[in-house]
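cron nightly-structures :: item 1 of 1
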Amino acid sequence: MKVMFFVIVAYIFASAPLSCEEDGGSPPSRIMAIHVANKGGFVNDQGLVVQRPQYDQCRGFRGEYGLVKLGSHWKFINRSFKLLDRDFTFIVPAPVSEDGVYCVKTQSGYRFYRPASDTFIGDSYRLAHPFSSGLGLAKDDEGWIALRSNSEVIFRTGLSVVNGFSEGFAAAKDGNIWGYLGGDGKMAIPPSFAKAEAFSDGLACIQAAAGKWGAIDRNGLIVLDCAFDDLGPFTDGLARFRAAHGAWGFVDRNGVVVIEPRYGSVLPFAGGLAPVMEKGRYGYIDRRGVAVIALSYSGAGQFALGLATVKEDPETTGGIEISSIIDRHGTKIFDGIRYWKEQMQP
């Protein structure tokens, strides 16, 4: 279920709404990543540059930490913009950092890491998925294990493939068919699908043996017949789908097509808006299918807390990659082209 869509990862983890709230206090100011002339930096939610573009890549803050890439390694950066000491080969993207735990890749393998205390959880693993629904999943030489953030192992399974938890379920492959594990490690929804995706909005998209996609509820009951060439996920009550002729549209939970398939690619709705592409240009539509932000960009990410990152048209930047941040009205709160011309252009 891959969509060829240039997402400005911005790096605000555009697949999910951002929240910087912490337990027991007011949410700190939001810090988002920008990329200007192939360098990454950070701006606040007022569009003010708080760390000039200087990193090879960067990702927006989750709580107290953002991520930056220098050369071939990733590092954590705190709200004082001080880089933490440890280097990582990769830090797995996730919409949130549960209990301050991240999934990282080191030279010895995948690990779970808590930057606030500079401590690792569990051992090194061949593969791992970020914590979700209170559990992290990791694969060692004997199979898959689920563990809590205190290193307590909850269950072990010999299934060949287990994906990360979402809404209390983890898609898992038993032989050549897929089902869903519950938090106790038992099959909550028996394997009967050719493929299975994560739960979202209480529904999961599944593929039947014949190759068509539909959706099930948390009881494993098919609520949307397997009639789509591609489908999902459900967000804001709608799911993207691909028609036989290759174009994308949106369908509701009852299977009613609410936005006819006409786009070359789309991303799921978030905050009532969805990024779409038509004839190589990207913009945003609302739930009626109306283009509320003109299709004038060369890339677009999902909205999160009222803001989204877009990639400026290279024809207007001399071929230099530049991102800007817009609000729900399409107004730029950070104008990457203007910043490049005034602050970075020789």
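cron nightly-structures :: done
The chain is about 5% helix and 55% strand.
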